[in-house]
Structure formats: C-alpha cells, structure tokens
Amino acid sequence: VFKFLKRPAAEQDLSEGLAAEALQSTQSDAPALGAETDNKLIFAPVPAPAEPIQVSITTDPAPPDHNVEVLLAAKPRRTMFGEASARQALSVIASAKPGSIHFVVAPRSLGHREALQMTLRDVAATLPPVDAIVIATAFDKPHGLQVLRLPSDQAAQLRDGVARAIEMLCETLPAAFGSDSTQVARMTLDEELRSGQDRALDVLKRRAEAQNIGLLRTPMGYAVSPMHDGRVVQPEVYKALPDGLRADVDAKLASFEAELSAVLADRTRLQRDHRTRVLDLETDAATLAVRPALAAVKSQLAKTDTVAAFLDALGADLVRNAALFLSAQATTQSQPIANTRAPIEVATDPRLARYQISVVTPARHRSIPNNASLGDICGVTWISGGTPVASDLHAAAIEPGALTATDGGIAMIDCEAGLYNAASWLALKRAVHASMVQPIAALGDGHRAAGPMLPARCRLVVYGDAADCRAWHQANADIAASVRVILAFEPVVVRTPETELQLAGNLAAISQDEGLQPFAGKAIAALVDALTRTDEGTPVLSTDLDGARAVMIAADATAKARKATTTLARDIATALESRRDLQGLGPAIGFSP
Amino acid sequence: MIAHLAAAHEGRGRVVVRLGEPVPSSLAVLAAAAHMARAFGSAIEGLFIEDIDTFVAASHPSPNEVSLFGNQRRKLEPQRLQQDVGHFGVAIQRQLSQAAAKSGVAFEANVVRGDVLTALTQACDARGPWNMIAIGEPIATATNAALLSAVAEQIVATTGVIAAARSAQWRSGPIVIALEDVSVMAGLVRAAQRMAAPFDDPIWLLPVGEDDIALDWLESEIRLTLTASTGVQLVEPIARNANPRAISMAIAACQPRLVLARMGGLVVPSDDAVAALSAIKTPVFLVR
Question: What is the pLDDT of residue A347?
Fold first, then answer.
C-alpha cells in the first residue's frame, strides 16, 4: 500500500537507493503531509511496517498540475476508469429483448474483463426473475420429455414431491399387489382362464370320444380321427367300412373339425377377456396405492393447470406401469432362492428413471468459458450404451448448456474465446436467435434422441476490443445488422487529479494483491510515466492496468534478484525494456516511459 | 407305502420322466425330478413317448391338422409329423438333461412309440422296483389328471409320482408332509429326510383331516409317535370342512419346496387333481 508524500527539494538529488535508506532513517523528520509546495512526490507503503520506506523523487517530464493533497489520500482500490459511464451504456442490455446479441467494445485486458463482468452482473441483477425450467417425462406422449416453467420454489416442490411419491410407491405398490384380496382375485381369474380354455377342449374331446371320434394333439396343432375302443382306427379297417358308415364318420369328422377350430379360436377371446379383467384388477390395486402417494404434491401444486395436467398424466402412467415397481420372483433351478423381492434403488434404478424430474434455475448472468464445446453451449443428453432411442430419454440424462442456464439473463462470451469449432458459433447464434436449443446427444450430434428443445431466451453479450469488433462483424455478416455495439470502456482517460488518484489507488491495490516489496518513488513515477502519453496536446493515462501489473511484477523480481529491498526506477526501466524487447507489454507498449 | 428310490449303482430303479405330451414341460417337475435323483443318489431317464394314435391318424387317406389357434388347416402327413415330433422330443429332452446336469445326476434319454401307460410300465419293469415317475407335462386337463391317477394306481414298479400344475414353481422352502394317515408317517418322514438333505431344508408335518374330530385324533396320534430326534416340525392342522380349497391353500401358504401327499386322498383327490395341484403351486410327490 502506497501513498504519495511531498518531500523537500534537497532530497531530490539523492540516488534512489540512498534516498530510500535516508528516508528510512529520517522518517521522523518528514514534514507533514502536503506541507511542502514544490513538486516532489514521496511514495511509501501504508499501512507502514515498523519503519516505512519513503522515497523522494522528481518526475520527469514534469507532471501535470495535479492536486497533491488528493493523491496523498489514495488508498488501495481496484476501480476501472469510466466505470460509471460503462454501467450506463451497458444498462441498455437489460432493457433489450431476450434473444438479442450485443457486442461490447472494451480494451482487451484482464482488468477490463473483470470490470465488464462485474458491471454486467449488476445490470443482470435488475432483470426480472424468471421461472425455473422443469424437465420431466412427457407421459401423454409415446416418447420423450417435456419442459414446464414454474417458479423456483414450486419447481423444487414438484421435484421433491414426486421423488417422495416414487419412494413411497416402492413400498405400497408391491404391498397392494401382494395383498390377500388382490392375490385371491388374480388366482380366481387365472383359474377361470385355465379351466375355461381346457374345459372347452375337454368337453369337446369327451363328446367326440362318445361318437368314436378322437381329438389328437400334435406338436403343431390338433388332428381329428375315427376311433374305436379308445384307439385310432387303422386305415385299412377304416377303408373296409361300408360306404354309408364311412360317409357318416366322415361327416362327423368334418363337424368336429369345425367345432375344434371354433373352440381353439375361442381361446384367443378367452385370453383377451382374461387380460382385460386382469388389467382392471391391476388398475384397481395400483390406483389404491398411487392416489395417496401423489396426494401431497397434488394438494401443494395442482392449482397450476400445467402441473395438474402433469400430475394427472404421471398418476395414469404409474398405474399403467405399476409392474415396474414389482421385481420378479427368483425361481431358478440351479440356485433356489427364497420368495423374496429385491429392494428397489429409487435414485439409480433404470426402471424408475422416467419418473425423475430435473430442475434448472437459470442464473441471471454467466460467462461462457473459453474453449467452450458445443455441449457446453447447447447442453448434452447423456445416453449410456447401445443405440440411443427416444424412449431411453429421461430428465436426469439432460445436462443443460450455458444458454439454457442463463435463460432470461445475460450470457457473456469473449469473441476470441476460441469456441471448440465453427459449428459451435453457428449453433450459438441460431440458438440465441430462436431462443431455444436442443442438447446434443453424447453419442453423436443430430440424433433423434438428442433431447427436448430447451428454452434459451438469453441476451448474449460478445465482447472484444475495437479491432475484434470489426473482425467479428465481418465474420458474422448474417447477424451483424441486428447486433447492437456498445462502447463500454475507453482505452485512455485524460490525466487529471481525479484520474491520477484513481491510478494511484489501483497501483497500490496491485502491489498489495501481488505481495510486492516497496517501490521507490521514482519507480512509481517511471511507471506512471509509462502509462502516460500526450494525445493532441493533452496528457492521457492508459486504462489498461494489466501492463502496469506485468511491469511491476517484473521490476519486483529484478530488484529481488539484486537483493534490494526496494524496487527502484532502474528496475522499472529494465522491466519495460525487456517487455519491449519481447513486444509483450500489451496495450501499455505504446506508452513511453 | 414305500417312498423310496434306488441308487444309480443298484440298477433297481431311477426317476423316469414321462415326456411327449405336446405342451411345454413343467420346469418345476423337471427340477423336482433332478432333485429326487440327487437326494437318493439315483439317475434320471427321460422317456419320450410318441403317441402311436397320432401316427395311425396320419396314415389315414386325408387327415387334417387344425392349427393351435384354429385358424388354419393342413394335411397331416406322416413324414412331417415324424419330423415335428422328433424335433419336439429333442428340445424337451434337452430341458431335462440341463436340469439333471445342474443337479449333477446321470441322465439317459429314450424314445418309444406306443401307449403312455404301457410304455411307462415297461420302462419301470425293466429296472425296478424302486422307481419314481415324474409326469413332465403340467397337470392341466382331465386327461392329464386321468393319466396321473392311472400311473399312480396301475404301475407297480414305482414308489410314487411327481406331478405339478402349470402354476408350480421350484423354489427353496420346507419339505411339507401332508399327512392323512399316521401309519405311513414313519416312511414319509424317512423319505422327506432324504429329500431335505441336499439343501438342508426343514421338514414340516401338516396333519390333514376330513373334519375336526378326525383331525384331533390324527394330531394326537402324531404327537405320540413323533419324537424330537426326527427334526420334524408340526404345523397347525387343517380340516377340509372349512373350505374345499383350504387344504391346498394352507399348503401353498407354507411356500414349500416339495410336498409329500397321498394320491387320491384329501390333498390331491383323484377327481379334482387339477384344481388341487393348481392351488398348491409346488411339485407334489404322490404316494399310494
């Protein structure tokens, strides 16, 4: 932490190192802050160690006529030049419609990006809250998922309420199906089918035998044959029968054959009727368990029409698929197992995955990370193993992307972030324009099982510097006309006492943040000069503090390398020189020390 | 009553499984048959009996075969019938051989053409007298039930018949003796002990009576005879007069692995074997 102090002119000729040592020893003799009238700056760490280092320097060229008193009061503070005007400029994003794209022009530096994020977060905070996105199985459709919009608290209630109901059903449904009354009814129905099927055939068989006709079972069906004394008549005996008698037997054979066909065909009807009655029985038993299981969540949420419809469909599906909750009895011959029911793991059992509900609460502001993949942007549908089909989909398999996660808010992306591929940019633009996005399938893009369309009504903010803006517009000519450009931060500000104070506070904050050793006054002066230039006769300061930070760190390292406890101007010069040689000062390289 | 099965090396008996009825075999019966052979150190013979009447019918000038669901008719040709029956026989013998392999008992497959009762009698007479017969098909029709009665009553060289309904399942559980006559209790308990040994199953003794008076007398006789050393557990007795299905359902409630009962008695009446076995839902070893 530093502050600027005025020192007597006599001290200005001292070498920097000597001055530092001298000041350490004469700190108690220092005049009161601001008491002197000449242009001498003293830079010292605050809060002071036991003996704070103070250095007297003279800036060269002579600094503008700034208010020394104000500078002396500088405290470490991370601020951005032009933040207020940037906030005002960016506030238009909040009033823009979802689905709009803005290009925010700002110098490309870490400080500016952080300031931009901070400002956008504040702007996003003014946006009205949006409903949570509820992803659930579409029970009234053959396959797939549906998206409901509910206030966050109701969405959570729905998710948790349904989960509790499913847990309850894991107990109550098997109990309902295993109850004595259900078992007796099922046993009766099964017996009715069995006896109905077999009895009709038995009756026909006995009636046929009474008339010396046999119904014989073959592997592929039934045969009708003349019989005598319980045995099939040999062909030669049959041929030897009188014509009239044989004709009579042939007529009986034809008649019983027709009856046999009718009896066999009737078995299909019996099975159909049996199935219908069993379904009715199972529906009764399942309804008995499902209705109370869903009662709690219905009483909480059924006032909303969409939720009421969803819960009704869920209830009907649970009744229809009650068998999912009943695990089969183990009856293997090799490993006889007791008549036990395997417990159902609600969270992981794939049979119950269709009843999972996923809730996404959109953030009002989010940065899309560098190198974001298509899945990061659009979302991913995770499908495990095999060929994905629509019926495999369930809510827990959907991982929403950044656009859905900022539905109704602001998504920010660096135009040079380097999206994973060109298709990502294309998908991003289209999704924002359409305000909806389809998650990609984890096993391959474009598959039909790629998941439902999710809302993506976000305001997209692309940011970059002026050159980026021109290049981006050329590359995205298809949407350039609809993109609003906002100038958020100027690269330079006029050097005034206020801006000097702000700069001083930022440099102090950098030193504090980076844990650097004390800087001599001339060193700071050199750094300030490096950030200063004259623009049409007016001194201006660069707003890019990334370069200043880099130089301060490099100078600190140089000083430490020569075992100095204070960073001097020559260390700054060395750092600047090396940065220039490497052409790596960034925006600050344009400023001469 | 002798509920015994000769060991394999004796050559005096084995489990003869009747196969050939063109319906799916009862897996529970096949498993029970294999279990019996294992328990007594015996072997299994799959006897596939081709119905001679069907082949005679096929040799008629113009016999028809009606399809299983009555929708189609085609000419019943002896050659194709032979192929169909042959394929079915191989498939059904394979099922039995797998059950035998799982129980680690010797398996033998034989095919004969003729009358079922005659074929079974000849097979048992060839190596007897301590055979057990298992009816491979589920007892689902009156014809099946009649065969069951005939086998139990007429084939001398067998000590009992294993049969089950279509609903029967092979599962772990106690060996349940449904006892109607205390005079056969000792023999049944000894047989049950052999049957329980492979899986160390408990043995439950369920007294069954015509009415409460008969049941009280039977229970008191059992209590006098039964000693603690047999390891047999007496369960609550059941009288038939409570409900026509009371005995079957009481046995089913025990969830037994196997039931030992008398053929033609209260548990499996000759005239109502289908319904009784359906309600028991477990393979039943029937003795005379």
Answer: 66
